[in-house]
Amino acid sequence: MFIEDGKSGKDYDQFQKAISISVLGFDFIGDTQYFYSTYRIREDQRHTAYSDLLEFHIIELNKLKGCTPTGGDQALYKWACLMNAKSEEEAKMIEKDPYIEEALKEIERLSMDPKRREEYEIRDKSLRDYTTMMNYSKREGIKEGKREGIKEGKIEGKIEGMEAGAAKMAKLTQLLIQENEIEKLMQATKDSTLREELFREYHIE
Fold this sequence. Notes:
Helix content: 55-70%
Strand order of the largest sheet: 1-3-2
Order of helices and strands: HEEEHHHHHHH
Distance between the termini: 20 Å
């Protein structure tokens, strides 16, 4: 995300906030039994914030049992309990609000309608495939950008090359996915010659 925002000449105050949300089915943080933790980057000695543009939110489902939510975490606690419910009966025992009620109704509709469930699973798989391909293409784009930057022989060239390579590959990925050309996209991530041909074909500069 920062690579996409960090165009040459762009002010840092124009960067968009990046938020990581991890929902874990195992214990990860050892110094607390509370189900929800938030991390930001701070200086080790003075504990001053480095930036408010990067946050990590961690929800540990194993810690829900026996946990009493504090502050404004009650709504989040209910949703976490819903995600962690092992049965329909357990889900129905969760204290409801209008949004959870609607979610439960949708879950019930999905369970009763095989076609609708299949459509949901296809859509969910497509989203996962899209995310995987975008991440992979960005990595390949950065590698290509490094090669271009190294040819320039300058630090500036390396940075600009990384940005350009990632941006070009991200744009190509989006276009090929829209056209359902997944196989061609997979080939392009491995074949630099084909990748360059596709850049020219789609007028990506």
